[in-house]
Amino acid sequence: MADEYEVLREKLDRIEQGVASLQRTMPRGVRIRSTRRLWGLPLYEIASGPDPEKGEIRGHARAVIAIGDIATGIVAIGGMARGIVAIGGAALGIISAGGVSAGALLALGGLAIGGIACGGVAVGGMAFGGLAVAVFPVGGLAIKL
User: Fold this and answer.
1) Domain limits for position 32
2) In a domain? residue 3
3) What total of structural domains would you count in the chain?
4) Neighbour tally for 144: CB within 10 Å
5) Cα separation of 67 and 25, whole Å?
6) What's the pTM value of the predicted model, to 2 decimals?
7) Burial degree of 13 (CB within 10 A; 0-12, 13-18, 19+)
8) What is the pairing mode between strands 37-38 and 41-42?
9) Confidence of residue 7 (pLDDT cuts 50, 70, 90)
10) In a domain, 114, yes or no
11) Is residue 28 included in any domain, yes or no?
């Protein structure tokens, strides 16, 4: 019985060493934040990748200029971006550009929805694209509202 316990203890020690080794080599996220503030927000923040200490699997940057997996700011750049100027895979703002883009004034992207929309599928007041749906549409298939 004591021998079995020792064998199990050695196996457990090897497993713990392996886990510790993996934790050291796991990719860490990037977190950079400005100490300067404007309107109560950091001037810039970069947040990319996981942060185990905060329990985040994606970085969420919140600043005047925000760059991250998820970005919220005056200028936001990221996978999901929300801001006055937003650039990202999914972008929401006054002026936006991305795969899926919604902009109150201007939207550019694969799917663009906005006052002026330009993209593969464009919907808005003025729309330019392969499929354009708008009051003033221009495109391969233009549908006037």
Assistant:
1) 23-144
2) no
3) 1
4) 10
5) 24
6) 0.77
7) exposed
8) antiparallel
9) confident
10) yes
11) yes
